[in-house]
Prior knowledge:
One of its GO terms (biological process) is pyrimidine nucleobase catabolic process. GO terms for molecular function: FMN binding; monooxygenase activity; riboflavin reductase (NADPH) activity. The chain starts with 14 loop residues before the first helix and ends with a strand. It has three helices and twelve strands; from the N terminus they run αβββββαβαββββββ. The longest helix is centred in the first third of the chain and has 9 residues. By secondary structure, the protein is mainly beta. It has a single domain, classed as Roll (Pnp Oxidase, Chain A), CATH 2.30.110.10. A hairpin with a 4-residue loop joins β4 and β5. It is about 15% helix and about 40% strand. The model has no long low-confidence stretch (mean pLDDT about 95). The protein has a seven-stranded antiparallel sheet with strand order 3-2-6-9-10-5-4.
Amino acid sequence: xxxxxxxxxxxxxxxxxxxxxxxxxxxxxxxxxxxxxxxxxxxxxxxxxxxxxxxxxxxxxxxxxxxxxxxxxxxxxxxxxxxxxxxxxxxxxxxxxxxxxxxxxxxxxxxxxxxxxxxxxxxxxxxxxxxxxxxxxxxxxxxxxxxxxxxxxxxxxxxxxxxxxxxxx
Length: 169
């Protein structure tokens, strides 16, 4: 018995191959924030992962060329925000290069440890950064949860096939 596929066949490893495969992987959408030297910083992430329950650790990736990297590279604490399907525009704002991410359209406040905390999210955490592990053109940030709130309402925002989307029943 042979498996059939609509794919053109295997390709050698490349950035394009990795992107093509991960476009098929649906991921939850988060915004990571940090207090910067002169202003808050943040970016949209789909690489958020639970690492350990005890102690409560998570990780996310960030490119070293990202505009938020200088703030994240120096921050003792970061904010992690799980976005709801009603927050597509917020996700797009934090993903867009050169956007005024903390402008009037973004509802936020200074939270624990001075970390920017976004309003209206499904859940948020403030985490203490433990490590920044080099990984190609990125760093994998490992952080321990300090405080958070899981009480937001709604359904999660997803990223799939290069766009923000929602769960279907």
